[in-house]
Write a structure and sequence with these properties.
Elements: H1 2-49, H2 54-95, E1 117-129, E2 135-146, E3 151-156, H3 162-168, E4 177-182, E5 185-186, H4 192-197, E6 199-202, H5 213-217, H6 226-235, H7 239-244, H8 262-275, E7 280-284, H9 292-306, E8 310-314, H10 318-321, E9 326-331, E10 334-339, H11 341-347, H12 349-359
């Protein structure tokens, strides 16, 4: 409903602007021509009457023609200035907005460690309300312990809170209650900048900048050497297609990287996370857009990257889930089961249902491909 109301407002304003343009643009074209015709008519009569010379009439027309374009440009500049002023106000609103997540007054650096993660009785809601006006909880008393250097796959139905768990670790949002700790320190008490430098994330939707591939990979460390960039690209399975480009790592990929395929963009994002050498790595459906013929290469690369590193894997595909040391099943905002992929597949009906739903309906039965 809100989107519909906003769209109607945009439509009305656009139509008003179109009506204004339909009135004034023809007028701006017509008036100078009317002026020329008037000058020719009146001036012609005065030339015939001998009141002015023919040269004076020609000069007057020439000066009038020279005047038309500067006046038109002045009108365009004034119009563009108004648009620029409105755009600047919108940009200023964004730049002047105070961030919600900031360092606490007694913020501390993260203690040394290898990335142990602990969620203790975490409650969180995005602010959407149910019929009673109460917020709809995404996580409700959520508990999770990820030992340092191990990997955990979070599995659950759509909307169960898997990605939310990944976003609470770098403190993109603050929890409503409970604590999230990295190496024993509550993330709310840690320096935000250091915390986010310590957490590498590969999202399902990859954002790349209109810059060279090397600069995109080195986003977390602009001073990284070419050797480090290429190493990260090889681990992510991106080196071969980059080398095939005309300018290699210096190729400019355009806004959001849309000159590349979805799988190529995602591999660059994985390389960017690898280069950052994070304490904690979060893979949020990181192989979802990868071509099936290349997925095994990326899984092998991820296996190397994940080794000895605390990793949260958010995935639906059994092959990707199997990369993790342990699997945690989320349901209704809580961790309801944990174990290896094979153990849960053999013992947990809900786990089988979730995988079956992610794989799509089977033709003859509901068997889950493994």
């Amino acid at each position: 409903d809100r989107l519909g109301a906003a769209a109607d407002d945009v439509y009305r304003e656009s139509m008003d602007a179109a009506r204004i343009r339909a009135t004034f643009l023809p007028a701006l074209q017509l008036l100078p021509n009317v002026g020329l015709i008037t000058v020719l008519g009146i001036g012609g009569h005065r030339v015939v009457d001998g009141a002015i010379s023919l040269g004076s009439l020609v000069a007057f027309n020439f000066y009038l023609i020279l005047l038309i374009w500067p006046l038109r440009m002045l009108g365009m500049i004034i119009a563009n200035g108004q648009r620029a002023s409105a755009a600047a106000q919108r940009v200023a609103e964004v730049l002047s907005t105070d961030p919600v997540v900031v360092d606490s007054p007694d913020a501390r650096p993260l203690p040394s460690g290898r990335g142990e993660i602990r969620f203790d009785a975490v409650d969180f809601a995005y602010g959407r309300e149910d019929g009673t006006g109460a917020p709809i909880p995404v996580l409700d008393g959520f508990d999770l312990h990820v030992e340092a250097g191990t990997s955990v796959a979070l599995v659950g139905a759509t909307g169960c809170g898997k990605s939310t768990v990944g976003r609470l670790i770098p403190r993109f949002y603050d929890v409503d209650s409970g604590t999230v700790r990295i190496d024993g320190l509550d993330v709310a008490e840690a320096s935000v900048a250091e915390l986010r430098r310590s957490v590498g994330i590969v999202f399902e939707e990859t954002f790349l900048f209109s810059d060279s591939i090397a600069a995109n990979i080195a986003f977390a460390d602009p001073e990284a050497s070419q050797e480090s960039i290429e190493r990260a690209a090889r681990l992510a399975g991106a080196h071969d297609f980059i080398a095939d480009l005309e300018h290699g790592y210096d190729s400019v990929i355009g806004e959001r990287g849309y000159s590349l395929s979805g799988g190529q963009r995602q591999r660059i994002a994985i390389a960017r996370a690898v280069l950052a050498e994070p304490r904690v790595l979060i893979l949020d459906d990181a192989t979802s857009s990868v071509d099936p013929t290349k997925e095994h290469e990326i899984r092998d690369a991820l296996g190397v990257v994940m080794e000895g590193r605390t990793t949260i894997v958010i995935a639906h595909r059994p092959a990707t889930i199997a990369l993790a040391d342990r699997v945690v099943l989320l349901d209704q905002g809580r961790a309801v089961a944990a174990g290896t992929h094979d153990e849960l597949l053999a013992t947990n009906e809900r786990y089988r249902e979730v995988l079956a739903a992610a794989a799509g309906p089977a033709e003859d039965d509901t068997e889950v491909p493994v």
